[in-house]
Design a protein that fits this description.
single chain, 464 residues, Aminopeptidase, Alpha-Beta Plaits, 6-stranded mixed β-sheet, 13 helices, 19 strands, binds zinc ion
Length: 464
């Protein structure tokens, strides 16, 4: 049997309707992790739905309780040979609120409804459809290899991703040996666009920075005091202007990432950022000079003013306000020195003449990604190209947040994400859906990728 047979087998699961029936059964579990009282459903999804599916593929699996008691995990493995590569796969079975009653034509979020090229249902895109595609592809490869995968495979499925994965890092750290692998291949999030197969290697981090200028209690009449009392709003605006200029360019060195490598530039050379009709057009003259939109979005840092306030903007008084506040956010790529960022911003503002500004850090998440010299990137990109005939977009980072650092840092794995959804999928909103065309292509992509993994006599290593 061949690669072509594996792909034909998975396409047959799609064309016969078996794949969509299986997905419909999974969508029917209202696994809303943000809603209290779903504990039994979260567990049932693992025990009644995924464990039997994995047992059919000769995986041993067990439920691992979460330390916080919020949502359980499924850990599974199938070992064939000590020499063969071992892949770890991740997915999440929980979904956001179903938003019953808000869907088009009164659709029930907890059943799948095909309409044209779309299949609606909560979790179809995020993430039940995506991990179901990967499971179906494993099934197809196993059938084509006569009951063997050709590699070792491990799974971790969590039921708390939509509540920010409270226990994923703790559980992975405690199971570090059991989850040992050569790489992570997982699927979540959207492709660059519906017709462009995509790989991304990690995610940008985020860091909220609060700036407070608190000069005195209450406001003071601007006629009586203007010119002799410092204005906190003026100070704050000027302080921000020393961090970012009026075109969104970073002015403070430490806010910037290390110089873009030629490798990153070459991966991003053919990546176009093209908003769809219902998305805003890209701003002219905004952002770092000399970078393409893709480089600015996927390989550079940005600092955004999320919120700013002083006085009462809806009903202003003729007074000098006593206080001004702003919340900024730095989105940053791997390699940015964020550990002492707050002190660095404080020192910078001090040196620029703003010692009265209080600088504090809040909500922070890590940036992480696979090293660009990992041989798995090229290997995966070639596999996708072989299956689809199209060169995939290879993005250093996913736009949103993802618990990638658990896999790249805690478990130390190269991380290859192969997303099966697309930007217009309405995840986290009413009318979440997948596209049939993308789903069929994605099934083939994953069967090809898993087939190719089984063709490797041993894991790829950096020194070839
Ligand atoms: Zn989500």
């Amino acid at each position: 049997m061949t690669r072509t047979d594996a792909i034909a087998h998975v396409r047959e699961q799609f064309r016969s309707g078996d794949f969509l029936r299986e997905l419909d059964r999974r969508v029917a579990y209202p696994t809303e992790s943000q809603n209290a009282g779903r504990g039994d459903v979260l567990r049932a999804y693992l025990e009644k739905e995924l464990m039997p599916a994995l047992a059919e593929l000769d995986f041993e699996s067990r439920v691992v309780e979460s330390p916080s008691g919020k949502s359980p995990f499924l850990v599974a493995q199938h070992i064939e040979s000590a020499d063969a590569p071992t892949v770890l796969t991740y997915g999440h079975g929980d979904v956001v609120d179903g938003m019953v009653g808000e869907w088009r034509n009164g659709l029930n979020p907890f059943q799948t409804t095909p309409v044209g090229n779309r299949v609606y249902g909560r979790g179809t895109a995020d993430n039940k459809g995506q991990h179901s595609i990967n499971l179906a592809a494993l099934r197809a490869v196993r059938a084509a290899r006569g009951g063997k995968l050709g590699f070792n495979a491990k799974f971790i499925i969590e039921m708390g991703e939509e509540i920010a994965s409270p226990d994923l890092n703790t559980v992975c750290a405690s199971l570090k040996d059991e989850l040992k692998a050569d790489l992570l291949i997982a699927s979540d999030g959207p492709r660059l666009s519906a017709d462009r197969p995509t790989l991304f290697l990690g995610c940008r981090g985020g860091y909220r920075i609060h700036l407070d200028v608190n000069l005195r209690e209450g406001g003071h009449h601007s006629g009586n005091w203007g010119g002799v009392l410092a204005n906190p709003a003026t100070i704050l605006a000027n302080a921000i202007a020393t961090l970012i200029d009026g075109r969104g360019r970073l002015l403070m060195e430490q806010l910037k990432p290390p110089r873009l490598s030629n490798q990153i530039r070459s991966w991003l050379a053919d990546v176009k950022v093209e908003p769809t009709a219902d998305e805003p057009a890209l701003s002219e003259n905004w952002g770092e000079d000399g970078l393409s939109p893709a480089e600015r979005l996927y390989a550079w840092n940005t600092m955004e003013v999320l919120a700013i306030s002083s006085g009462n903007v809806d009903n202003p008084a003729n007074a000098i306000p006593g206080r001004a506040r702003a919340v900024l956010q730095l989105r940053f790529v791997v390699g940015t020195k964020v550990d002492n960022m707050i002190e660095a911003i404080r020192d910078h503002l001090h040196a620029k003449g703003f010692p009265m500004i209080e600088v504090t850090g809040a909500q922070r998440f890590a940036a992480s990604r696979t090293d660009f010299d990992s041989p798995w990137i090229k290997w995966a990109a070639e596999s996708l190209q072989k299956t689809t005939g199209k060169p995939p977009a290879v993005l250093p980072n996913f736009g949103g947040s993802l618990p990638n650092d658990v896999f790249s840092d805690t478990l130390g794995l190269p991380t290859i994400w192969v997303p099966h959804s697309y930007p217009g999928c309405s995840q986290h909103a009413p009318d979440e859906h997948i596209l049939l065309s993308v789903t069929e292509e994605a099934l083939g992509i994953m069967a090809g990728l898993f087939w190719d993994l089984g063709e490797l006599p041993r894991p790829l290593s950096k020194v070839a």
